[in-house]
User: What shape does this take?
Amino acid sequence: MATKILIPAPLRPYTDNLEAVEVEGSSVGEVMRNLITRYGELKRHLYTEDGKLRNFVNIYLNDEDVRNLAQGEDTPVGEKAVISIVPAIAGGL
Amino acid sequence: MLNLDTSQVTLSREEMERFSRHLILPEVGLEGQKRLKAGKVLCIGTGGLGSPLLLYLAAAGVGRIGIVDFDVVDVSNLQRQVIHGTSWVGKPKVESAKNRILEINPYCQVDVYNTALKADNALELFAEYDVIVDGTDNFPTRYLVNDACVLTGKPNVYGSIFRFEGQATVFNYEGGPNYRDLYPEPPPPGLVPSCAEGGVLGILPGIIGLIQATETVKILLGIGTTLSGRLLLYDALKMTFRELKLRKNPATPPITQLIDYEQFCGIPQARAAEQTEIPEITVDELKAWMDAGKAFVLVDVRNPSEWEIGRIPGAHLIPLPQIENGDGVEQVRRLLNGSELVVHCKSGARSAKALKILKAAGIEGKNLRGGILAWAAAYDPSIPKY
Assistant: This one.
């Protein structure tokens, strides 16, 4: 089953400029691993060298931060689930 | 609800007329208008976000507005910083903003701070106000605003923008989460391009800034449901608003004092690393090379849209994303054919990034210090400053 992942503007250069991609996987973690396998350059922008999600990027399953889910990355993705990647942006001028 | 003392606040007949559309709203009324007049709001930055929100806070009847900005109005600001006008180019933004605010609402007390917000002035400044609005444009100041709000117990009305997308929320309000709960740490410098590098749709900060103004007015009035605990995401191209849950993160260490935010955001470290890794060339040296007919290749790594604005004679356009995906590296290799390489962008950050990638691929080159802006200032006034 493919899950839709919304890609924010700052990361689109690494996903062939796509604003959303569909990726297979049964849990949030599996979907994300398949995403960075498909788009290799995304990996270093999302994860540290030891595989930890970077502190300035959040991953949401629907409207909930994956860090706040009881099962975290192992949370199963339901049908019609949407994963959002939301990095920190600072612009204001 | 914020504790605002309205016992000494009165509205004149002229003010009653001016704010009559508020007065007849049962949710605002005379007491609400007095709360707005008793309210003290500090806005950090009078740029894209600060401009529209200050106009509306002034019009709404906020009694005291403080504005912090060290910058002067530049002609390239006018595409979105709607509080400033053409006749104010070259003059301090805080003075320009004060002039416009008083034109809209002469009953407003405007405090101007023509200075940068720093760890040594933030706490004292924030203590004077009821609500802090973050309209800044960089990570060090955003963490400083957040931490100072937490330490002084002030709500932080947050907005930020990037190209066509914006984020807004309210931090540190009635026990709610703060910026460090959302993002414990900033990205390393250079990873996320700034608006000056990446561009921004001029209307976008208008929308986000007015969401911040709306939240500020609601907090002062004590009505409605604020964005506290919710992160609002706006996409101008798709015209969608999405909402994500924002919770306190128990792993976030408590904020006990202000720190060195440049250091926290890795800025001095990045600057030092860049200087030792990537050799630079000045525009004067480049001009001398050109005049002497030296054999070298000049590569411009800006976007094609920036290339259309202006270019240095003889430059080859190879945008940074092409270098990042590898195609551009091979293009540079073919162009070089043994001669020296100079790389430039708008002001030097992206070309440094490109040179780092090229270096990893075995290609050495020099970074043009100050980019095309420095070149335009020294040798070609026909290139627009953008």
